[in-house]
Amino acid sequence: MQDAKRHRVEVRPIDVMYSDRDCTLEGVAHPSAVRLGLRLRQISGMRRASAERIMAARALQPFDSAEDLARRAGLEQAEMALLAAADALASLAGHRRNQVWEAVALRAPPQLLRDAPVMEEEFDLPEAPEGEAVLWDYNATGLTLRRHPLAILRPRLDRHRLLTAEQLHPIRNGVRVRTCGIVTLRQQPDTAKGTIFVSLEDETGTIQVICWPKIKEQQRDALMKSRLLAVQGMWQREGEVRNLIAHQLRDLTPLLGRLGTESWDFH
Q: What are the DSSP E strand ranges found in the chain?
């Protein structure tokens, strides 16, 4: 998603008023926008049948409230909570705190009162600050369409002279540098003789890090457990190929707070 945004691809959020079961293209003009789907892999627990009921009920008549959605699509409270956590009720309930409030307030009524509306005074909560909203995004869906977490942390990272991927790009071969990023991939091919390749992501791009077996042995915890990893090492540049040869690693994961990022680890 971050790479798509850097290439000026418009990605629109999950929304029960517009999203289909899977991701779709919206608009006929060029370029089209990508709308995230209700059954996007990251929404753990959202069932295919529930997504299809949402689409079917919406096709008959647009929803006018979260309560209307739950009643006509036959959604359980737990599924409404999943949608609220994913910020998918924004068109019906406003910002995420209000969405969560409305979702947890819904209870399955007795069959006799199933179609009876509940008349309650609306309760408006203050909107969450940006950092909290980004944290919610990652924990609920595994991605964010808001600012990258490192863009929020950048003033603090600058004080430690940690360069961005964009700043590293023009640096000449053989220069010692330091950088950091969210770990998105760890890979240890069988043919690499113990070498681990790590992909880091920041708000400007990706950084490929090479960790020789000695680094793995000496700094294993930082290498294998970090979600936010700082690396000091030698910048290697040959033509258009750029890598960072790691010398020193540091786990900066506490800076992310409770941010639920995950990496893909391959052997």
A: 11-12, 24-26, 33-35, 176-187, 196-202, 205-211, 228-238, 241-251, 264-266
> pTM of the entire structure?
0.73
User: β-strands 205-211, 241-251: how paired?
Assistant: parallel
> How many beta carbons lie within 10 A of that of residue 248, not counting itself?
13
- pLDDT digits 0-9 by tens, 10-30: 999 999 999 998 888 887 666
- Smallest CA-to-CA distance from 88 within 55, 114, 118 is with 55
Instruction: Specify the length of the chain in residues.
Output: 267
- Angstrom distance (rounded) from CA 157 to CA 180: 8
196 closest CA partner among 211, 208, 183, 181 = 211
The terminus-to-terminus CA distance of the chain in angstroms comes to: 25
In tens, the pLDDT along 97-107 reads 888 888 877 75
Task: Take residue 69 and report the two structure tokens written for it.
Answer: 């959605």
Nearest CA to 43 out of 5, 71, 15 is that of 15
Torsion angle in degrees (nearest 10) through CA of 14, 15, 21, 24: -70
Residue from 27, 22, 199, 21 nearest 9 by CA: 27
- Cis before 31 (ω within 30): yes
Q: Note whether 79 and 50 are within 8 A (CB).
A: yes
Q: Report d(CA 163, CA 154) in Å as an integer.
A: 10
Which phi and psi (to 5°) does residue 208 adopt? -95, 125
- The CA distance from 98 to 96, in Å, is 5
Buried b (16+ CB within 10 A) or exposed e, 12-27: bbbbbebbbbebeeee
